[in-house]
Write a structure and sequence with these properties.
With 114 residues, this protein is mainly alpha-helical. The protein has helices at residues 2-46, 52-82, 90-113.
């Protein structure tokens, strides 16, 4: 009887993984479509004569691109964690730590000068 429960549990785990992968696939396809549309808009705008308004519009599109990327990454990370996976990019974390430390040092230095 224990063998059947083990097989059933394994089937449920496989089904859960397949559902997560399907959700991730759908979300990344949607994100890819949105990000490609946003970058196409930026490329078209870059063909226009330069102006302050154009720079503001491009900046807003870049913010939308950043948001779309963050949204996709958060969704993928959440799905991965729900099935027990959690990739940590040590190099990226180290870089972020160095940037944070540099910004703290810069702010502290700036406060001392004023």
């Amino acid at each position: 009887m224990a063998q059947f429960k083990s097989i059933e549990a394994t089937s449920q785990n496989i089904w859960k993984l397949q559902e997560s992968i399907n959700s991730i696939d759908a979300a990344t396809q949607d994100s890819e479509t949105r990000i490609r549309a946003l970058t196409a808009a930026v490329r078209l705008m870059l063909q226009q004569p330069d102006s302050g308004e154009l720079r503001l519009q491009i900046s807003e599109l870049c913010t939308a691109i950043d948001h779309a990327i963050s949204e996709a990454m958060n969704f993928v990370n959440s799905e991965a964690e729900q099935v027990g996976a959690n990739f940590i990019d040590g190099g990226k974390r180290d870089f972020a730590d160095r940037v944070y430390e540099a910004s703290r040092n810069s702010a502290a230095s700036s406060k001392r000068q004023h």
